[in-house]
Amino acid sequence: MTDAGETAIEPSADDLDGRFVARRAPGMATVDADPEALLLHEPTGYFHLLNPSAALVWDCVDGVTSASAIAAEIGAVTGAPFERVLRDTLALLSELRDAGAVQDATSSVVAPLPPPPRERLAFLDERFATAPEHAALGVTMDGASVTVRATDPAPVEALRDALGARAGDPVPGAAEVSILCGRVGEVGRDLDRVYAETVEVTRTGSVARAAHIALRLVDDLLTDVLAADDSIVTLQADALLDVHGTAVLVDDRSSVRRVGTRTLARIGLRRLELASATIDPATGELVVLTPGRALGAAPFDALAAAFPLDDDVAPSGRYRVRTLVLLGATPDELKTTSPARRVGSLVALVTGGDGTARSADLAAVARLAQQWHVVRELGLTPDDVRDVLQTVAVEGTV
Amino acid sequence: MSDELGQDTPEPRAGIGRRTLIKRAAAAGAVAWTAPVILDSLASPAAAASCAKCFKFGIQAVNTGNANPTKTDNYPVLSYNVGTCLPNGDANCVAANEKQNVNFSALGITLTNPFQVNLPSSNQVTVSMAQSGTFSGAGCRTPFQIIGTSFIWRSTGSDPRFPSGTGDNGVCERAKPGDSPTTGNLFPNNHLVAVSSSSVTWTMPASLKPGHSGGFNFVIGCDCG
Lengths: 398, 225
What we know:
The structure holds 2 protein chains of 2 kinds. Chain A is of the alpha+beta class. Chain A has 3 domains: 3-104, Outer Surface Protein A, domain 3 (Alpha-Beta Complex); 116-223, no CATH class; 229-295 and 302-398, no CATH class. Chain A is 35% helix and 26% strand. In chain A, a hairpin with a 2-residue loop joins strand 10 and strand 11. In chain A, helix 3 packs across helix 4 (82-98), helix 6 packs across helix 10 and helix 7 (207-223) packs antiparallel against helix 10. Chain A starts with a helix and ends with a helix. Chain B contains 2 helices and 10 strands, in the order E-H-E-E-H-E-E-E-E-E-E-E. Chain B starts with a strand and ends with a strand. Residues 1-10, 12-16 and 44-49 of chain B have low confidence and may be disordered. Chain B has a 4-stranded antiparallel β-sheet, with no helix packed on it. Chain B has a 4-stranded antiparallel β-sheet with strand order 4-5-9-8. The chains are: A alpha+beta, B mainly beta. Strand 4 (46-50) of chain A pairs antiparallel with strand 2 (38-42) of chain B, so a sheet runs across the interface.
C-alpha cells in the first residue's frame, strides 16, 4: 500500500472516491473462469460476468482495503497509471454496488437476502382447483414431509395402498409431487404429467407408471439428497441412456427433451425418469440412486406387485456421461470464446425451481463440461432438432 | 478454465495473499490493464442479449381464414374474451413499432406447419426470427431476439378443459426465452414446446371451435448487442 494510494482521491463519475472500502455482499460466490470470473448470487441465481481486469479488482475486494489502495497495488504490477486504474476501479465498484454485489464496508452489516418464495405454477394450481375428484396424501419421515396430489384419485389410492401406514394427511408447505391426469376430449386423452415441485419429470399414458415415478420422487425428496448432499451435484437436466450404457445429459429447456420415445429409440436412446440428474463431481458419472433409501423397499415392492414395472424406469447405477446438450439462448453463446460466458451458459443447469443456485455445483459442472462433448443448440426448428439428434447419435458411435 | 470456487467465498486476505495473487497474474501475462467491466448481469442465460430497438406484430389465422398466413396481422390479435394477451416486453416497445400487414419475408419471420388451433397436439407450429440478413420491413438490424410471445386461442363452452361456462372460451398462454413448458402463465393448458431468443414452438390445442381461431403476438428486439 503506497502513500499515493492512501491520499490520492480521484473524483469519479459517481459518489464514490478513493476512500471507499467495499465488501462482498452476502450470498455472493465466485466461480473462476480464468482470466475472467463469474459472480453468482446463490439465493437468487443472478450472476455477473467479469472481464479479466474486473476479476482482478474483485479479487482485491476484502472489506478492508480502500479503492485507492487497490488501485495502487494493481497499478504497481500492471504499470498502468494510478489515476487511470483508480478511475476505472471506482467505476467498476460503483457498478457492482448498484448491482448489489458489493456493499460499503463501513455500513452496518446487512443480512443475506432470503431466498425468493418458492415459485408456484399457476396452471398446476388452477388444474387442481378445477378437478373436483382430486386427491392427496402426505408422507412424513424424520421431520421431512412430501405431499403427493393427483387430479384423479386413482394414482393416489394406489400409492396409499403401497405406502400403508406411512400414508397420512398432507402437510401444508411440504414439498410436492403433482400428477396431472390426462383428460379425455374429442380428439383423445391427454398424457398424464408428473411434476416434482415445479419440474415436469415425465409424460405418460399409464397411470401405473405415473404412480411408480411419483413414489420414486417421494423417496428422493424425503432423502433430501437433492438439496443437502455436497458429494452429489444436482443438474436441472434430463438424462438419456444409449445402447452402450453411457448417458446423454439434456438441458431442461432443450427441444431434445420433447422428442418422442420412439424417435429416441430409433437412434438408440431411451429416457431415464429422474427428478434431476445427479452427478458425481469426482468422476463425472450420472448417479441413479437406489429407490427406497428413505421409504425402504416395501412400498416399491407393493406397488410393483399391483402394477408390474416396465423396463423403462431407470435402473439404479452409475453411468458415464459422454454428451451434454445445452440450449444456447443467444447466438453469442454459441460462438463466444469468453470463459465467463461459457460458465454463464451453464447456470441454468444448476438453478433450482426456487431460483437458488449453488456455486459448488456450477464450478463442478464447468469443470466436467470440459470433459464432456457439448452440443449447443440454438432455437428450435425441425432442422435444429434433427441436427442435434444426429450429432448425439454420431457421437455415440465414436 | 480454472474451476476453483468460493462457495460463500471468503474475501481474500489483505496484504501478502492478494499481492501475490496479482503478481502471479501479472507474471503469467494475464494482467494487461484494460477498463474493468461487467460483461453481463443475468438472471438467466436467456437474458444475455441487449437490444437497442424493437418491433412487434401479430400472426392471426382466423381473421383471414388462412391457416398458412404470409403477412402479419393486427397486434395484439383478437381478444377472444381473455383480454389483449400482451407478451412480455410489450410496455417497452411503443405502438409506433407495430408491424401490421407486412410480409413475413420483409421481417425475417419463418412460420412452419399449418396454423390451426383445432389440430391435435401432434401438430407443432414454429415461428423463427432471422439471426442474420437484411429485412427492410423491420426498421432495424438483425440479429432479432424474441423478447416475449403469447399464444391466444379459443374453444367452445363444451370443451371439457375449460371451467363451466357458456359461449366462447379463450386462452392466453405467454412465454419468453428462458421459460419452459413448466413455466407459469399457461392456463388452463400448456401448449408451449420450447422458446428461445430466436424461435418458439407451440403444439396446437385441439380446439373444439371449428376453424382456426387463434393467433400469436410477438415483441422482438433488434439491433441487439
